[in-house]
Amino acid sequence: MSKIKINRDWELPESLATSEQTFWNRRKFLQALGISSATIGSGLMSKGMHAHTAEKAARGTTGPSKLAVNNHNFVEFSQWNAETTQLAQSLNTESWPITITGLVERTIQMEAGELIRLMQLQERIYRFRCIEGWSMVVPWSGFPLKELVKLVQPTAKARYIRFDSFLEPEIAPGQRQDDWHVWPYTEVLSMDEAVNELSFLATGVYGQDLPKEQGAPLRLVVPWKYAIKSIKSITRIEFMQERPETFWEIARPGECDFYCNVDPADPHSKLSQQQEILINSGDWQATQLYNGYAEQVASLYV
Ligand SMILES: Nc1nc2c(c(=O)[nH]1)N[C@H]1C(S)=C(S)[C@@H](COP(=O)(O)O)O[C@H]1N2
Ligand SMILES: [Mo]
Which residues are registered as beta bridge partners of 201? Predict the structure, then answer.
């Protein structure tokens, strides 16, 4: 008797996951590698640092600089990350209403906790690659985005999904800064991308609830795209016909195109994306097209 083969070729063994301790101590770990000046990131690029210098800094071949290694990227709180974790604790994730609306048969408005309880949770071990040139292997828990899509039943007109993060300038200093003026942080997927098997809504990491600095209570995880697309602390999801602009398209044109797919052949903001430093080991490795998920997603882009 033949079994139906469930194709989960993308599954990574748990042994590859970044050690939990390293994961929680990312900042210290990168410092220990001697790359405490390593931020080759969005903040840095927006400050106009020359990409070549940034790469050299990341490889530890230049002297120490004032730039801190990113701990968590959460620009609502801080661009310089040292205080991000602390500032993010002021998010009130106990009460977190989420709205799912737009071109759907069933609009949803409920507490995040209630919504999460409706879904069957599972674990996904994914590669996670930031445009700054670091990567990790992360065990997320949560549910496939396509399950949420099924729940609300988009109409035939829906072609894009926009995700909005929170807007609370009283607690988020980044949202009080003039030079961004495009809050809230928003990201967008096409419907095809959203219902791809890999698109995931995370509610936890390493078997725990997501900490606030990592986007509690609900964040997107799209592993074949730069981590910039994995929007944290979602409050609103809207199904749309026309493609809306994303936070980065407006705030920093050229940072990342709409798709923002991992592509070693396509440098962003003049910064080469050919290599990445793997946070588990400190080894540099070649970046893979679609972050190693070409088999699952390349057909979306032909
Ligand atoms: N709302 C929100 N989501 C966000 C960001 C942000 O600044 N705000 N930064 C993005 C970037 S650039 C990265 S690298 C990842 C970092 O996720 P982590 O802190 O869990 O590693 O979150 C992404 N999601
Ligand atoms: Mo990032």
Answer: 143, 220
